[in-house]
Design goal:
about 230 residues, alpha/beta, eight-stranded mixed sheet, two-stranded antiparallel sheet, 8 helices, about 35% helix, about 20% strand
């Protein structure tokens, strides 16, 4: 039987917003290159960058009833994460549902399926990351689980985990590790900031990152063109 779990724990929004500021690539690297959704989950417009607490939802193929159920469980700062129980590219979310989600504090949608009304969603500046864009609508006949752990685009997501999404993709951070990952992301940003002016001034990454010894260990040789036999 379908299950709706109420009052699930969330990650503090100060941590969530800090991870949004860091961005997907930095967060992904900071947590050991884990948690990245499949590369075909793309934003419907750019630029777009948000993070939110995962509001999870399973949907039957061609049926968006569970999304309407999920709206009732939404809290300020949530990000709706939707996965179909079988592959489907139908347009599960359009401008009407987006308006309802916005009214309940939801920051955006990540869906391993399709969306529609993308021109209106873009005008609304309601960010969506989806596998497809499809005008095909859905019915409301088969409810699914809401606010239970799911797998979306190859990644395990629990309610209240942090979902970070921008132009580079989508990454998930467990709520227990979110504060630690945020610190690691900020440390990484500081390190990159110290290297950026050196690289833009012309210093080679080979020297900045001390790569020459490792290249030699790998057997890389340098020869002049005229010395080649």
């Amino acid at each position: 039987m379908p299950l709706v779990v109420r009052n699930t724990p969330r990650t503090d929004l100060e941590v969530v917003d800090g991870l949004a500021a860091a961005g997907v690539a930095t967060v992904h690297e900071a947590q050991g290159r884990t948690g990245l959704l499949r590369a075909d989950i793309r934003p419907i417009f750019r630029p777009a960058r948000i993070a939110g607490n995962a509001l999870t939802c399973e949907v039957a193929p061609g049926d968006n009833w569970s999304i309407h159920i999920a709206v009732e469980q939404a809290q300020l700062g949530d990000l709706l994460v939707v996965t179909p129980t079988s592959p489907c590219d139908d347009g599960y979310v359009g401008d009407l549902l987006a308006g309802s989600l916005l009214a309940h504090g939801v920051r955006g949608v990540v869906i391993d399926a399709g969306v529609r009304d993308v021109a209106t969603l873009t005008e609304m500046r309601f960010p969506v990351w989806s596998k497809a864009i499809s005008a095909k609508g859905t019915v409301k006949e088969t409810p699914g689980n809401v606010q239970t752990p799911i797998v979306c685009a190859g990644v395990y997501v629990r309610p209240g985990d942090v979902v970070v999404a921008d132009d580079d993709g989508v990454v998930v951070v467990s709520r227990e590790e979110a504060a630690t990952v945020l610190k690691a992301a900020r440390d990484r940003e500081a390190s990159e900031a110290s290297k950026r002016p050196r690289l833009t001034a012309g210093e080679l990454g080979l020297d900045l990152y001390n790569m020459r010894g490792r290249l030699a260990d790998k057997g890389v040789r340098y020869v002049d063109y005229t010395d080649q036999s």
